[in-house]
Amino acid sequence: MSDIKTAVITGSTSGIGLGMAKGLAAAGMNIMMNGLETAAEIEPLRKSLEDSYGIQAHYSAANMMEPDGARGLIEAALSTFGRVDVLVNNAGIQFVSPVEDFPDDKWQAIINLNLSAAFYTTKAALPGMKQRGWGRIINIASAHGLVASPFKSAYVAAKHGIVGLTKTVALEVAEQGITVNAICPGYVWTPLVERQIPDTAKARGLTEEQVKRDVLLAAQPTKKFATVEELAALGQFLCTDGAASITGAALPVDGGWTAH
Ligand code: NAD
User: Running DSSP on this structure, what letter comes out for residue 213?
Assistant: First the structure.
């Protein structure tokens, strides 16, 4: 078997996941991409990873909302590359509404994708990591895994949940060369954030500009969105041996938000 490590990144066809895919490809890893964009949108991204970094990149359309999809993504990576060394649980969605109007199906979808998918992928990826005595699991949580905001009940519940899952699995595998950490970004300018601005504006009776300035960046003392490149740099570091003692941590990348 080749020494080249394989990274599986859920939701890596856009935003933070795509940034992570670039960061880990730049570190020399083969990449299993995943996401719901069309094949025509994904193929240039996949090819660009191979061309820019000289690694192999494959793509799976597995739906992380479904347990079989999450398990299937790990199986696809194992049958393509023979190993999963790094797992980044990143795919996530948002829905904004007061709790009493929050649709039941949106609650369930957010719990399934933002929390349960990481349970199924972790379960499927751990046996191989244990066998090799090395592994990295990085869960993309959120500042909302540490603190709450109104109108995001499902998202905040799922993100607090994934921080709990991170700590629990970290303890279970601590002696086996596997680290498990959560990255907790504040606001990062990606399609997910862009899409929630109209709904937040409606829920709070504000203009979209007011939402950006007075709601999103009001919480972020730096008054700047974090970048996907900053998150990828942390992801890269967590995959080095220098980060071997960082495990069970929830690491904020939030411009000081959770220091309040
Ligand atoms: P994004 O909307 O840009 O990308 C989401 C990715 O997930 C896409 O590749 C999409 O295809 C994929 N996806 C969506 N549903 C899927 C499904 N059912 N199965 C497989 N893939 C699916 O979002 P983003 O802003 O890059 O967010 C990525 C993660 O970072 C999410 O978990 C989000 O909660 C978290 N996060 C984002 C921010 C931010 O400000 N953008 C802040 C904190 C945490």
Answer: I
Q: Which of 59, 120, 155, 187 is catalytic?
A: 155
Q: Do residues 64 and 10 lie in contact, with contact meaning Cβ atoms separated by under 8 Å?
A: yes
pLDDT tens for 26-49 read 999 999 999 999 999 999 999 999
Are the C-beta atoms of 70 and 64 separated by less than 8 Å?
A: yes
- Average pLDDT of the chain, as a whole number: 96
**CATH number for 110:** 3.40.50.720
Q: Is residue 1 part of a domain?
A: no
Asked if residue 226 lies in contact with residue 186, where contact means CB atoms within 8 angstroms, the answer is yes
Pull the structure tokens for residue 44: 């240039």
Residue 82 lies in a domain: yes
Question: How many Å lie between the centroid of ligand 1 and the Cα of residue 78?
Answer: 23
Q: Is the CB–ligand 1 distance for residue 255 below 6 Å?
A: no
pTM: 0.96
State yes or no: is 155 an active-site residue. yes
User: Which residue, judged by its Cα, is nearest atom 36 of ligand 1?
Assistant: 142
Ligand 1 centroid to residue 35 C-alpha, Å:
9
pLDDT, tens digit, 9 for 90 and up, residues 59-115 = 999 999 999 999 999 999 999 999 999 999 999 999 999 999 999 999 999 999 999
Say if residue 21 is in the same domain as residue 113.
yes
- Our answer on whether the CB atom of 112 is closer than 6 Å to any ligand 1 atom is no
| Residue 1 pLDDT grade (very low, low, confident, very high; cuts 50, 70, 90) | low
Domain shared by 11 and 53, yes or no: yes
Residues 197, 85 share a domain: no
What lies within 8 Å, CB to CB, of 118 at 6+ separation is 89, 139, 162, 165
Q: How far is the CA of 89 from the centre of ligand 1 (A)?
A: 10
Examine the domain organization and report whether 220 and 126 are in the same domain. no
Full domain range(s) for residue 20 = 6-186+226-252
